[in-house]
Specification:
Number of strands: 10
Helix content: 40-55%
Largest sheet: 5 strands, mixed
Number of domains: 2
CATH class of the largest domain: Mainly Beta
Distance between the termini: 98 Å
Structural class: alpha+beta
CATH architecture of the largest domain: Sandwich
CATH topology of the largest domain: Immunoglobulin-like
Order of helices and strands: HHHHHEEEEEEEEEEH
């Protein structure tokens, strides 16, 4: 047997298996500490998503706002492990550098590390697939609900202009600078701009839609809670953009009908 063949066989014997590489990697002190910090931060985000975020969000006054809350909580849970891992590594690195300890030797580049590339590709693909499926499902549910409620929906034509909102109720036959809506009745907003681009945002109703000068954009929701909601412009539209805000009201059906009559309109 030649010396070259002997060296080749010795290399094959001594070369660690993937399992041994993983085991050796997990035995490293920096890996275990970073992982521990990652678990801690993951739990923090899970607690925030399940208990804190719902309390910090605006009051839920519509079906869309409720759906937004569910989406925020769910995606917080999904992204918590990723955020936890990144923060765990970053925190450990910061603490070690702060102590003045020498950093560990660089590992192989990610682009040449086969297992890392495979795991990273699979995980990111699963997240992208989940987002696509979730988005398509929500769009279909929203479209079906809008089609079902279209006949009984109240239509409000919303016009943004520097720097006020105006509202037209075509079926009721009047216009107003106030936005009042009946409880538990679907509403369809048809939004347009009289000048520059604006963005119609009735905050607690969970709706945000662009107001463009040459295109009418529609958005639907159903108010589910009596009370006052904020109306803001979410698109920088000029000098007094920050003051382009007002309030709307969700009323009982009888109060809404009385308001319509007082405006010179008629019930529809």
């Amino acid at each position: 047997m030649s010396s070259h063949e002997s060296e080749h066989e010795e290399t094959e014997v001594l070369s660690p298996t993937p399992g041994q590489k993983v085991s050796k990697f997990l035995e490293r002190s920096d890996v275990r500490k970073s992982f521990g910090l990652g678990v801690f931060f993951t739990l923090v985000f899970v607690i925030l998503g399940g208990y804190a975020y719902p309390k910090w969000m605006p009051t839920i006054m519509s079906t869309d706002m409720k759906a937004n809350e569910h989406l925020m909580i769910a995606f917080t849970y999904i992204s918590a492990p990723i955020c936890g891992l990144v923060l765990g590594i970053a925190t450990y690195t910061f603490l070690q550098r702060h102590k003045g300890d020498a950093p560990p030797e660089d590992g192989p580049a990610i682009k040449t590390n086969g297992p890392v590339v495979v795991v990273w590709s699979i995980v990111t693909s699963l997240f992208a697939l989940l987002a696509i499926i979730w988005g398509i499902t929500e769009l279909n549910v929203g479209a079906e609900a809008a089609a079902t409620d279209a006949k009984q929906a109240i239509v409000v034509e919303v016009t943004g202009s520097q720097w006020v909102w105006s509202f037209n109720y075509p079926a009721q036959g009047f216009s107003s600078t106030e936005l009042n809506l009946p409880l538990d009745r679907p509403v369809e907003f048809k939004v347009i701009s009289a000048d520059v681009n604006h963005s119609f945002w009735p905050v607690q109703l969970g709706v945000k839609v662009d107001a463009n000068r040459l295109e009418t954009t529609s958005a639907e929701t159903t108010p589910t809670k009596l009370g006052v909601f904020d109306i803001k412009c979410a698109e920088l539209c000029g000098l007094y953009h920050a003051y382009m805000e007002s309030t709307g009201h969700v009323m009982t059906t009888s109060d809404f009908d009385n308001w319509v009559t007082a405006q010179g309109g008629h019930s529809a």
